[in-house]
Amino acid sequence: MEDLVSEDKKQEQELEGVKPIGEGRSGAGKIAAADAVEKEEGKEKSLEEQLADALADAAEQKDLKLRLAAEFENYKKRMMREKITAMKYAGEPVLREILATVDNLERAIDQGQAEGVEAEQRLSSLLEGVQLTLKSLMTTLEKFEVKPIESMGKPFDPTNHEALTMEPSDTVPVNHILNVFEKGYQYKDRLLRAAKVIVSAGDKE
């Protein structure tokens, strides 16, 4: 009987000496939990940094767009000013060329009024000066692609000709140009001025 009692006490003492499961790891568990919290806090900081970077990038992109918009607006204004200036002085090259014609006419007049020269010689000099001036002017017009329309003896074309009247003719066929009262001109591929003409009505009979 005493042996049984002693055996029970021995088992109780052994059970009292056994620690509960996990009790011996309580320190390690706390460390692991702390590490997990620190990692979580690190993740939160990383997200905050990413958000700050994204906001900074968005602000930079907005600033860039505003600067580009301002530059484009300035470009449009500059182009508009240049266009207005170009339209305002578009005739400058033509006028510069015409000035040479004015010079030639003035020289021709001066020669026609020269003192101590006979009238016939003055008239001849004046005529020669006018002819040279006309030649110079026609050269200028051709430079700007302005050309006279050849009409004499051609069939009447209402697109390029304006008929003033019709006259009978033995030499020019009917509905052909008998005489040119005022030349027509073409600018590049466009009619600048129609020729004023007299149209043949055909044989007098």
From TrEMBL:
Keyword Nucleus listed: no
Gene3D superfamilies (alphabetical): 3.90.20.20, Head domain of nucleotide exchange factor GrpE (2.30.22.10)
Family matches, as InterPro entries: GrpE (IPR000740), GrpE_CC (IPR013805), GrpE_head (IPR009012)
UniProt-annotated stretches for the region Disordered: 1-45
Compartments, as annotated in UniProt: Cytoplasm
Major subcellular location class: cytoplasm
UniProt KW keywords: Chaperone, Coiled coil, Cytoplasm, Stress response
Entry-linked CDD domains: GrpE
Residue ranges of coiled coil: 95-122
One Pfam family of this chain: GrpE
Top-level taxon of origin: Bacteria
Oligomeric form and interacting partners: Homodimer.
Protein family membership: Belongs to the GrpE family.
Function, in words: Participates actively in the response to hyperosmotic and heat shock by preventing the aggregation of stress-denatured proteins, in association with DnaK and GrpE. It is the nucleotide exchange factor for DnaK and may function as a thermosensor. Unfolded proteins bind initially to DnaJ; upon interaction with the DnaJ-bound protein, DnaK hydrolyzes its bound ATP, resulting in the formation of a stable complex. GrpE releases ADP from DnaK; ATP binding to DnaK triggers the release of the substrate protein, thus completing the reaction cycle.
Protein name per Swiss-Prot or TrEMBL: Protein GrpE
Provenance organism: Desulfotalea psychrophila
The gene coding this protein: grpE
